[in-house]
């Protein structure tokens, strides 16, 4: 696959995913630090949630059968949330609150707005169904069931769910250790003055942000000179501490492009040149057994290829599902007059056009124009060998979905 032909995106993904090792290192973290982490084992429900039947409203717990008797019904008890109720005395009602446990013997709760309170008890003013306003024990989670599968990424709602089961700690996969190597003699770090011929190192920061959002640990972040010696030395050093090396630049055909050349010379290049736009010269291989994802240097190509190729790889290593993103089918609000053999990922966003949701494309899709990606909220896909007219349906993926 490292020949001169462009490899289709699907074929490349299949090839790369087949080589993604699932990380088996785990660690136990406090729930307060679990956001964004990935469950290393399925989470089984230790006890029903909620642990007891409880009231959905503020009102009165009753026996449904007592409604057939003469009213008012005397109020024999008061059950604030957080207390353990006594059984409901026959022929009586209990004052109850939202979240209070239902007393034994009660089988319905009447909202207080549906009740007239008199000196001798309550009169129920509306029809009441059996079980009305009772939230059943275990309605959320049943003891012994699987609450969350292995590989779940913990979002705020999963933090809440784990807490609802009383879990103070969770076992998660250790973060994927990633090295970021940016290549280019023209690169200068932000904060330094620019000399003629120099530009700021953009990709380092895009990649730092992407990897943080993807839940990875950046173990090394260096910029290398455009020489074969520096490339061999730094790649080899990174290989000893990282699970994955991500490089930017140096994968095209110029004699200053050393990343692809070094991988090839060491027999570790397994994929080069994809039918993707931007990002064509993407390279994948390994050095000393550590996988290397060689992203092209152009800043928009880095973002697109990371999202389309890098994220599925990372997800697989993290033990997460790698089902392709779903996206949305939406009409294009732009034109692509000339077909390309490469699948194009257009920096785009949704817009309302005459009341209809449409995909709007940033006018300059050059892979050197990163402001396109800041303007955009996602990527629209123009399939290979296809022209686009306004109104044609395209698939649109939000950045959130691609990075989720
Ligand atoms: N003769 C050909 N030239 C090029 C081809 C081709 O097929 N034949 N492909 C072009 C395409 S497409 C791309 S994409 C680039 C990829 O080039 P490299 O991966 O070798 O990257 P570089 O040459 O090192 O850099 C490309 C471009 O990006 C800028 N850059 C690199 N790193 C950074 C960084 N960290 N921050 C900001 N900007 C960066 C660099 O200055 C160059 O302008 O090759 C085309 N050429
Ligand atoms: O594939 Mo390159 O990123 O098109 O310029
Ligand atoms: Mg180059």
From TrEMBL:
The protein's Enzyme Commission number: 2.10.1.1
Keywords associated with the record: Magnesium, Metal-binding, Molybdenum, Molybdenum cofactor biosynthesis, Transferase
Pathway given in the UniProt record: Cofactor biosynthesis; molybdopterin biosynthesis
Gene3D superfamilies, A to Z: MoaB/Mog-like domain, MoeA, C-terminal, domain IV, Molybdopterin biosynthesis moea protein, domain 2, Molybdopterin biosynthesis moea protein, domain 3
Cofactors required: Mg(2+)
InterPro entries in alphabetical order: MoaB/Mog-like_dom_sf, MoaB/Mog_dom, MoCF_biosynth_CS, MoeA-like, MoeA_C_domain_IV, MoeA_C_domain_IV_sf, MoeA_linker/N, MoeA_linker/N_sf
Annotated ranges, domain MoaB/Mog: 179-316
Source taxon at top rank: Bacteria
Reaction equations catalysed: adenylyl-molybdopterin + molybdate = Mo-molybdopterin + AMP + H(+)
EC class (word): transferase
Keyword Lyase belongs to the record: no
Described purpose of this protein according to its UniProt entry: Catalyzes the insertion of molybdate into adenylated molybdopterin with the concomitant release of AMP.
Family: Belongs to the MoeA family.
Name of this protein: Molybdopterin molybdenumtransferase
Organism of this sequence: Marinobacter koreensis
């Amino acid at each position: 696959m490292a020949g001169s032909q462009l490899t289709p995106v699907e074929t490349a993904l299949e090839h790369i995913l087949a080589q993604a090792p699932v990380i088996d290192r785990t660690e136990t973290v406090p729930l307060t630090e679990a956001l964004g982490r990935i469950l290393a084992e399925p989470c089984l429900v230790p006890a029903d949630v909620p642990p007891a039947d409880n009231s959905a409203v503020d009102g009165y717990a009753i026996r449904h059968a007592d409604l057939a008797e003469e009213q008012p019904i005397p109020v024999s008890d008061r059950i604030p949330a957080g207390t353990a109720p006594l059984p409901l005395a026959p022929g009586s009602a209990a004052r109850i609150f939202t979240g209070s446990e239902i007393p034994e013997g009660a089988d319905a709760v009447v909202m207080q707005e549906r009740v007239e309170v008199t000196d001798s008890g309550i009169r129920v003013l509306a029809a009441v169904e059996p079980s009305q306003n009772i939230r059943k024990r275990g309605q959320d989670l049943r003891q012994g069931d699987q609450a969350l599968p292995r590989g779940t990424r913990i979002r705020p709602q999963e933090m809440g769910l784990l807490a609802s089961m009383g879990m103070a700690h969770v076992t998660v996969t250790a973060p994927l250790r990633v090295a970021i190597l940016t290549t280019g003699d023209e690169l200068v770090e932000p904060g330094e003055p620019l000399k003629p011929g120099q530009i700021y190192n953009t990709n380092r920061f895009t990649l730092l942000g992407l990897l943080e959002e993807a839940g990875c640990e950046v173990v090394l972040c260096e910029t290398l000179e455009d020489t074969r010696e520096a490339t061999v030395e730094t790649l080899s050093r990174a290989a000893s501490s990282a699970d994955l090396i991500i490089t930017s630049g140096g994968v095209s055909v110029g004699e200053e492009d050393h990343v692809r050349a070094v991988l090839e010379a060491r027999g570790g290049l397994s994929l080069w040149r994809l039918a993707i736009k931007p990002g064509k010269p993407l390279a994948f291989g390994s050095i000393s057994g550590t996988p290397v994802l060689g992203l092209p240097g152009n800043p928009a190509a880095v973002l697109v290829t990371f999202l389309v190729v890098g994220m599925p790889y990372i997800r697989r290593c993290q033990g997460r599902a790698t089902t392709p993103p779903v996206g949305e089918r939406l009409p294009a609000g732009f034109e692509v007059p000339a077909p390309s053999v490469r699948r194009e990922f257009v920096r785009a966003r949704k817009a309302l056009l005459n009341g209809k949701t449409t995909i709007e494309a940033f006018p300059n899709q050059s892979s050197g124009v990163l402001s396109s990606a800041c303007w955009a909220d996602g990527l629209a896909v123009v399939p290979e060998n296809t022209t686009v007219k306004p109104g044609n349906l395209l698939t649109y993926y939000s950045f959130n979905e691609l990075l989720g």
